[in-house]
Amino acid sequence: MLKTICYISDSRINKSITDFNNLIRTAKTNNAKNNITGILVYKNNNFLQVFEGAPETVDTIFDKIRMDQRHQNIFKIIDTSIDQRIFEEYKFGFTVVSDKHALQNLSDYLEWLRNADNMIANEIVTMVENFINQ
């Protein structure tokens, strides 16, 4: 059994490209080490992240995120068990979405997921699409 968490938060990072690149690098490295798949979307100084993996690992990572000074006003939207990974096939693991091309690729993937007729996947798709389109 696996677990997924989806949350949104306000960013506290400086808007400098160095700070953002450091966040991306850290997220990708840590998630690869911990066998975590998912996405991180940054838009309008806000984050939406979906990550999935072993339940205890996902819970530990979310606890670290809640304590991370780069986030404020964290709101957990989804916290549930899943039978299979939703984002395993998307960019082969964990992906940061921060530009229009990446958003289009994500939109295409979300459309593919919607057709999979998985209730949890559809709920996550709706959350991500609402975030992207705000």
TrEMBL record:
It comes from the Bacteria. Residues 2-93 form the BLUF domain. SMART domains: BLUF. This is BLUF domain-containing protein. The lineage of its organism: Bacteria, Pseudomonadati, Bacteroidota, Flavobacteriia, Flavobacteriales. Gene3D superfamilies: 3.30.70.100. InterPro entries: Acylphosphatase-like_dom_sf, BLUF_domain.
